[in-house]
Amino acid sequence: MIIKAADNHAYCVHCFAERFNHKCAGCHEILIDTCLLALDKHWHPCCFICNCCRRPLPNGEYYLVDDKLYNLDCH
Ligand SMILES: [Zn+2]
Ligand SMILES: [Zn+2]
């Protein structure tokens, strides 16, 4: 287990993430590895999906309706 130091305290990766990492705007779980920045929010790549067909959204191509994400086909 890797220890990271912050604020002069040592944390394991999980506790470090819990304290300092962003939460996913889709599932509200903590983001540990890859995250995607869109709409000023952070997302798991697998959570940044069309609200209708649940398919991943291609880069930069999404539509926002009532705060929900849709792709070109479903919006
Ligand atoms: Zn997520
Ligand atoms: Zn869709």
Automatic annotation (TrEMBL):
SMART domains tied to this protein: LIM
InterPro entries: PDZ-LIM_domain (IPR050604), Znf_LIM (IPR001781)
A GO CC annotation given for this chain: filamentous actin
Keyword Chloroplast tagged: no
Top-rank taxon, per record: Eukaryota
Record's keyword annotation contains Secreted: no
Keywords: LIM domain, Metal-binding, Zinc
MF annotations from Gene Ontology: actin binding; metal ion binding; muscle alpha-actinin binding
Residues in LIM zinc-binding domain copies: 22-75
Swiss-Prot/TrEMBL GO biological process terms: actin cytoskeleton organization; muscle structure development
PANTHER family: PDZ AND LIM DOMAIN PROTEIN ZASP, PDZ AND LIM DOMAIN PROTEIN ZASP-RELATED
Designated name of the protein: LIM zinc-binding domain-containing protein
